[in-house]
Amino acid sequence: MLTSAQNPKIKYIRKLSQRAFRQKEKKFVVEGIRLVEEALHSDWRTECFVYTAQAVQSPRGAHLLAKASQRGAQLFEVTESIMADLAATETPQGVLAVLWQPDYRLPDLLAAARPSLVVTVDGVQDPGNLGTIIRSADAAGADGVVLLKGTVDLYNPKTLRATMGSLFHLPVVTAADVKVTLDCLAAAGITLVVGDPAGGQPIFQADLTGPLALVVGNEGSGPQPAVYEYRHRKVTIPMPGQAESLNVAIATAIMLYEVVRQRT
Question: DSSP assignment of the chain, as one string?
Answer without folding.
Answer: -B--TTSHHHHHHHHTTSHHHHHHHTEEEEESHHHHHHHHTSS--EEEEEE-TTGGGSHHHHHHHHHHHHTT-EEEEB-HHHHHHH-SSSS--SEEEEEEPP---HHHHHHHH--SEEEEEES---HHHHHHHHHHHHHTT-SEEEE-TTSPPTT-HHHHHHHTTGGGTS-EEE-S-HHHHHHHHHHTTPEEEEE-SSSSEETTTS---SSEEEEEEBTTTBS-GGGGGSSEEEEE----SS-S---HHHHHHHHHHHHHHHH-
